[in-house]
Amino acid sequence: MDKTADTSVPLHPLLAERWSPRALNPAATIDDAQFTALFEAARWAPSWGNSQPARFIAARRGESTFDRIHGTLSRGNKGWAGDAAALAIGVAQSVNSDGEPMPYGEYGLALAAQNLVLQAVAEGLHAHQMAGFDREAARVEFSVPDDFEPMVAIAIGDLGNLDDMPERLVDKELRPRVRKPLTDLVFTDSWGTPLF
Predict the structure, then answer these.
(1) What region holds the Nitroreductase domain (predicted)?
(2) How far apart are the first and last CA of the chain?
(3) Roughly what angle, to the nearest 10 degrees, separates helices 32-43 and 105-122?
(4) What CA–CA distances, in Å, run from 33 to 37, 83, 120, 121, 172?
């Protein structure tokens, strides 16, 4: 499936070709170098004051931790994410070492997750970020400390085919990628006055 973004100006292929499939190949694997590269990319994400608030719990299919992560997913995501080559849960530090709220911890995790996703594209893989998981179940399952918050689950793998997917998911996979127009995104002079 070609899901290259339809943009007003050309974008780098890492951005234009990034999308979040559900149809993943249950036979695909991620080798050690690819797996490490995903988290090395996340490690080099910018963060407020270089606080580096992002942490990940991650595993590849066939490992017990993969099954434990899969067990925290919502019913809808469990149905397709088991075909991923790897699963991860992104966790944000919410309290700093002084016991104060961590400024921009969630934002730092988001930047790290985006780096991970773009590295997946660079590796010829795809990643699908999910809010549909039980954050408290993840906290308990992995003994996440109180000063960290599970925020996102991520499925990583190679494209599969649509033949074995439920029809409602096939419809989602085949939908064109749509975004609000650029005029709704960037303003000048005052709120609502489009820059472009």
Answers:
(1) 16-63, 75-157
(2) 31
(3) 140
(4) 6, 20, 12, 14, 31
pLDDT in tens, 134-188: 999 999 999 999 999 999 999 999 999 998 888 889 999 999 999 999 999 999 9
- Cross-strand bridge partners of residue 120: none
Q: Would you state the structure tokens that stand for residue 85, as one six-digit string?
A: 């080559």
Residues 173/23, Cβ–Cβ less than 8 Å? yes
Instruction: For each of the domains in the chain, give its residue range(s) and CATH number, in order of start.
Output: 31-162 (3.40.109.10)
φ/ψ of 87, rounded to 5, equals -130, 150
Tokens at 189, concatenated: 């002079």
Taking the complete model, does pTM exceed 0.70, yes or no? yes
